[in-house]
Amino acid sequence: MKLKHTTVFAALLAGAGLAFAADAPVIGLITKTDTNPYFVTMKKGAEAQAAKLGAKLLTAAGRIDGDNAGQVTAIENMVAAGAKTILITPSDAKAIVPSIQKAQAQGVMFIALDSPTDPVSAANALFATNNYTAGELIGQYAKAAMAGKPVKIAMLDLFPGNPVGAQRHNGFMKGFGMAAADAKSNELSTNPAIVCSADSYGDQAKGQTGMENCLQKDPGINLVYTINEPAAAGAYQALKAAGKEKGVLIVSIDGGCKGVENVKAGVIAATSQQYPLKMAAMGVEAGVTYAKTGKKVQGYTDTGVTLITDKPLAGVSSRDTKYGSDMCWGNK
Amino acid sequence: MTKTSRLPPVATLGPLIALLLAVIFFATQSGRFLSVQNFSLILQQVMVVGLIAIGQTLIILTAGIDLACGAVMALGGIVMTKLAVNSGMNAYLAIVCGLLVTMAFGLVNGLLVTRIKLPPFIVTLGTLNIAYAITQLYSGAQTITGLPPAMTFFGNTFRLGHAEVNYGAVLMLVLYLFMWWGLRETQPGRHVYAVGNNPEATRLTGIATDRVLLGVYVTAGLFYGIASLVSVARTGVGDPNAGQSENLDAITAVVLGGTSLFGGRGMIVGSLLGAVIVGVFRNGLTLMGVASVYQVLITGILVILAVTTDQLSRKGAR
């Protein structure tokens, strides 16, 4: 991938505080990081849509997930550069709110992408995957796949207290038919069938370590829930090393291109695919509409989620990996 | 030429006592903790940090510090995997290229520290950012998959009795033994201690202190490169976001192992114990079903204890 010269140029202009010509609406996109393929894809989707609709796109990101200060700086710079709409994937849902409100007072519209602000109403609108539904889908699939066999579950979660992590975790349990907290809770529900939990931070190496320790705790684990596909790849590495990769079902969430490849290869049984390209494209479109007509978008738009698997099961609707790789995000 | 300084017993025994207490505690809490298989597992989980910590120990022994170790390791891993997978280079040659890159970073750090007399803390803060950025740009923030078998060898295991032992963990243990011998018994090893103890006095005895320091930074770079290879082998991918927690985890291991941040005092084997202590807590708490965030809390407390011990024993030694 080469550096996006247009982005760099736009960022330089923004830094110099130069507003663009009034005829092209200026739209800002602020992602959590610019190192995660998910956000890289989001940026590409926004760039393509901006080029199509004749808008100027500014992009910025925090340095790491959770870098609120970096996002605050980005908002200030984009407002200075004349952005009238800012799309943001909040790194810290609560901490970003005052900066959003300050910019809104100057007439800027905010659309939260991928995950909500806290409170949700702090942004004008939210375009995101329903993470609870994403969890429910793989939970239902796992239930059907286990076909009534006694189950021992390992949960490779994100990290404590994260709403996305909690929604996926609790959604999975609900889909599996276990009692679990609803989508509003940030607490991870428990159940006797869950014999081990570990925090993977969505990272392959940490997912592998977590799974190794879980297998040590209970070698009889036969179902693994993973927060995302890198964590799933790590879990598979650990299972393979223990010679258990055949008898254990791994389910995951995200639908990145590498993840879909792993579904095709049989590493992951099923994954819930989400659509960052669509979120970004819809966001840019709403920004252009606001610039041209003054009409703001409002409320929550579910950008949809699809279960991707090559072993469809009765009672759970899914699409195959061909569809999955056509629609996937990240580098193929 | 001064002999290798004898450590006060408390600094040597501190990490060992902490490790034993932790092992005893977890053995009472989980029936699955006390087994050869589980200890082999812990070693394989700490081998990447353990290998980085060898290089970090060398630098800290000279009263320096390297904040960039994890970032340099990540860059080495991306260089190796990308050359082998995307450029079709021979796997062994690609590994050598990765090692050369990490050693080049060591050389740059060493030159800035010795020639321009910059503080290591600031130099490596700079190279941390540079290495991170190059890693992201070179990889396009994409994970590299489909590695050749030569690159994943150190992730494989062999059977030893009832346990699966990891080749990478064995490599780490062998390298620790080698460096322990090298620092104690060879002249360059003793020079490392001497430069850390008193650089001015060492220079006056006719030892080329700058050359010793440069050697230390380049050798550290070599160990980061070996860590790159082992890290890549363990996960089976080239991960551009690897190494971010290792920057500080390696320093933590060295400090927990009783090596003094003031230079000139400490044991390389202590760093291995330090890395293992962190691994024991992570593994033990998971087996107990306790959230891993407590491991972070305990690690923080142990770091403070270790530094306090070092400070008190320095006072006592005067």
TrEMBL record, chain A:
Residues 1-21 form the signal peptide. This is Sugar ABC transporter substrate-binding protein. It comes from the Bacteria. InterPro entries: Peripla_BP_I, SBP_2_dom. It is found in: Cell envelope. Gene3D superfamilies: 3.40.50.2300. It comes from Rhodoferax sediminis. Keywords: Signal. Pfam families: Peripla_BP_4. One of its GO terms (molecular function) is carbohydrate binding. Residues 27-296 form the Periplasmic binding protein domain. GO terms for cellular component: cell envelope. Belongs to the bacterial solute-binding protein 2 family.
TrEMBL record, chain B:
It holds the Pfam family BPD_transp_2. It is found in: Cell membrane. The chain crosses the membrane at residues 7-27, 39-60, 67-85, 91-114, 121-145, 165-183, 212-233, 253-278, 285-308. The keyword Transmembrane helix applies. Keywords: Cell membrane, Membrane, Transmembrane, Transmembrane helix. It comes from the Bacteria. GO terms for cellular component: plasma membrane. One of its GO terms (molecular function) is transmembrane transporter activity. It is a multi-pass membrane protein. The keyword Transmembrane applies. PANTHER family: ABC TRANSPORTER PERMEASE PROTEIN YPHD-RELATED-RELATED, RIBOSE IMPORT PERMEASE PROTEIN RBSC. This is ABC transporter permease.
